[in-house]
Design goal:
Protein name: Beta-galactosidase-like protein
Structural class: alpha/beta
CATH superfamily: Glycosidases
Helix content: 25-40%
Order of helices and strands: EEEHEHHEHHEHEEHEHHHEHHHEHEHH
CATH architecture: Alpha-Beta Barrel
Distance between the termini: 31 Å
Number of helices: 16
InterPro entries: GH
Strand order of the largest sheet: 3-4-5-6-9-10-11-12
Number of strands: 12
Keywords: Signal
């Protein structure tokens, strides 16, 4: 389960910048789904590779205000700040930008940059304004014709929503000093992460498959780069389609289409950012661990008439397949593990022997069918999948328990999250770690202080 951030603040972010990306010149309606330009040399980076003497990840905080007093009090070595944007605030109407909000966002970024703090921008695509929700066929639909109870719009398949998102990203890039950013984060869900809506969106846990509007099923109003269902009107779990038996191969192809649509959507948003003039990488938040290969094999054997832990199957999360596809279609993509030291790590740490820490050979074990994989925590699976894909990883702790964060009653306390997540970030070879949330270091909400962060990272 991912997080969106503390109430009133969007989902957390972190960044690593490896190389600039050349612009793609195709018009939005003509964009090819996979072809990408080659990477070219780059700008400010959070990668340890940019500073060979530095073995540690970069350190930072999530949901930063870039307030002068906080910048002055930040611990030594904590020099990354995530500044979050809000789509509904920048574009409250379809035909205008809120100049006051744009000025405030630009000022926040500039304050951090002027203080020597590297800034990652949260795109805020998970907060569409009301006028986007009102667009024709903007609502995502499941196999029963239901729309999400959490207000999710179809950021994956809808051409109308895609066009609105593209224009928003152009305006967002124009509103901030984009050449000074070290990352922009893009997701597809209302949590700002990779995935179709989760079980919380339907009111019926593990029940909904979110690809049954006219765009994904009939190709009507389909977003650029997407393709219609390979089995139109087939509902997972049904044993026949158009008068013939559905085979496991059919089910696997359908799920590959459903899961792959997420990567195609991120690739299209990344292309929009490049066309708007942004030259940095795109950070893709990855919640949970996705579907393990053995679990997917079992699911397709019964033509998807099953559910998988954390709703990963219906969210369309298959990191073993998705992350190589992401590496091939989004130049300089970075995977953000959004639950470093979440409840799955707590459970894995208590096993004998413990299974919480990344180890050499994890990438190979992930596809070998090793029975121990089910004991691995989310962070270890996602780090192994990213390593197989050759993608850098960053990470962030889940934060305090609550409906708008990734923390649960089974998670570590925030003090323990700080301690363990820092250790996991080092042990899993993450390029950067951001503590969630900045407010928890500068208010009395958690009991933590900047000095605690400094002590955790040895500064």
């Amino acid at each position: 389960m991912g997080k969106r951030g503390v109430p009133g603040v969007p989902v957390r972010v972190l960044a690593v910048l490896l190389a600039l990306v050349a612009s793609c010149g195709a018009a939005p309606a003509e964009r090819p789904p996979a072809a990408v330009p080659p990477a070219v040399p780059a700008v400010p980076s959070l990668s340890p590779a940019a500073a060979p003497a530095r073995a540690d990840p970069a350190w930072g905080v999530v949901d930063s205000t870039c307030a002068p007093e906080r910048l002055a009090a930040r611990p030594a070595g904590v020099d990354v700040a995530v500044v979050e944007a809000h789509w509904d605030r920048l574009e409250p109407t379809a035909d205008a930008v809120d100049a006051g909000y744009a000025d405030g966002l630009r000022a926040s970024v500039q304050r951090c940059v002027d203080a020597g703090v590297r800034v990652v921008l949260g795109s805020g695509l998970q907060y569409p304004p009301g006028w986007v929700r009102a667009l024709p066929d903007a609502a995502v639909r499941d196999q029963a014709g239901r729309t999400p109870t959490n207000g999710a719009v179809d950021t994956v398949f809808s051409a109308a929503v895609a066009a609105a998102a593209d224009r928003y990203l152009q305006r967002l890039v124009a509103a901030v000093p984009a050449d000074r950013l070290v990352g922009i984060r893009v997701g597809t869900s209302t949590a700002g992460e990779l995935g179709h809506p989760g079980p919380e969106a339907s009111g019926a846990a593990f029940d909904s498959w979110w690809a049954f509007g006219p765009a994904p099923q009939q190709g009507q109003g389909l977003a650029p780069g997407q393709i219609p269902s390979p089995l139109p009107d087939w509902i997972p779990g049904r044993r026949t389609w158009q008068g013939r038996a559905v085979t496991p191969a059919d089910a696997r192809a359908w799920f590959g289409w459903y899961s792959g649509s997420l990567v195609r959507a991120v690739a299209d948003r990344a292309r929009s950012l490049r066309e708007a003039g942004y030259r940095g990488p795109v950070h893709v938040p990855a919640a949970g661990r996705g579907v393990l290969p053995a679990a997917l094999d079992a699911a397709v054997a019964v033509v998807l008439d099953t559910a998988v832990r954390d709703g990963a199957l219906r969210r369309g999360l298959d990191y073993v397949a998705d992350l190589p596809a992401l590496a091939g279609t989004v130049p300089n993509a970075v995977v953000d593990i959004t639950g470093l030291d979440d409840a799955t790590a707590v459970r894995a740490r208590r096993l004998s022997p413990p299974q919480d820490r990344c180890r050499p050979g994890d990438a190979e074990a992930l596809v070998s069918g090793a029975p121990s994989l089910d004991d691995w925590p989310n962070q270890r699976v996602t780090a192994a999948a990213a390593a197989r894909a050759g993608l850098p990883t960053v990470g962030e702790n889940p934060g305090p328990p609550g409906p708008t964060t990734g923390g649960t009653a089974d998670s570590d306390s925030e003090a323990d999250q700080l301690r363990y997540a820092v250790s996991y970030a080092r042990g899993c070879g993450l390029s950067a770690f951001l503590f969630a949330f900045e407010d928890d270091l500068y208010t009395d909400r958690s009991g933590l202080t900047p000095a605690d962060y400094a002590a955790a990272i040895g500064r």
